[in-house]
Amino acid sequence: MNEAAILRNRISAMQFASWELHLFLDTHPDNAEALAKQRDYSEKTSALIAEYEANYGPLRTSDHMVDRWSWVNDPWPWETEGNE
Question: What is the pTM of this model?
Answer without folding.
Answer: 0.67
